[in-house]
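Tutorial, part two.
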Amino acid sequence: MSETGSHDNVSDEKLPSAQENGHGTVATADDPFADPGMPPHEPRVQDVDERAAKRSERVVAMLFTASMLATVGFIASFVAIPVDKFVYIWPMGNIGALNFALGTTLGVALFCIGAGAVHWARTLMSDHELVDERHQVAAEPDTRAKVMEDFRQGAKESALGRRPLIRRTMFGALALVPLSGVVLLRDLGPLPEDKLEHTLWAKGKLLVNENTHEPLRPEDITVGSLTFAMPEGLDEHDEDFQKEIAKAALMLVRLEPEDIKDKRELDWSHEGIVAYSKICTHVGCPVSLYEQQTHHVLCPCHQSTFDLSDGARVIFGPAGHALPQLKISVNNDGFLEAQGDFEEPVGPAYWERRA
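Running the prediction step on this input gives:
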């Protein structure tokens, strides 16, 4: 009985009120989880001491200035440090100096902007707690007006207008950081200018067999065969071999002259031997499959098909235009030679391509 009576006495008592604890609200037995409210606002040292506020302003400006300097360091590193230079960094060992410098300077630039913004908000912007009730997603006009008023009030309390040093250094840091991304465009390489429109082929250049590295004679090309050639003077051990062969690769096919339908193709050939770029005009794959009866060549990547008896025009597949032809003849020594470069750029079309 005594236990029951004790329990009843407790249940009838009012729980300690939040107001008594300084929170301004009351918790009762019926509502033991009442909102305790906000604690009393305590001013920061910067709110009461202008010298402390100035110190915080200088710290924020210093961080923004450090971000600007780091961005300049990023650009300078990108320009000055060779891509093949390595440095020893403990405990990582030997790493690329350029990557290390770019990562460090860009990281410092971004960190200082973030740290400056956080320090600014925590020490100089208003820190008065605001309480607002939840509202529907579709706000009423009065609510939207209040939001705009709150925004204007927040902008005013940020003291951006009264802190020109912060404003200028922040704008400077934000203006310079995007330059880090702009200079990275250099890695896309220099502008091609007209390099894509020319190959190593020129008047008098001998046609050299890709496999034997020997100059080709007309009798080396038999009807029904497909022979691959490259310009004389191009060595597979050269540093630029892959870049040059990707543009100059040539395929030779001997047709019966009466089977050639295109008159210009016949004029540019020698005894039925026609020479066309080996580079597919779709995405640049090497055309390498030849069908003797139809005189068609097929690109194995996406099945673009070209008719070598009719100007190498496209008869099937996604290729956009015919294979460029190389005009050939025979020199006094009986070797096949080019009469110039391809009339148009080889490979896929590109936006700078001239009509």
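The helical segments are 2-12, 45-48, 50-80, 97-123, 141-157, 164-183, 241-248, 263-267. In part three we will examine how such features are distributed along the chain.
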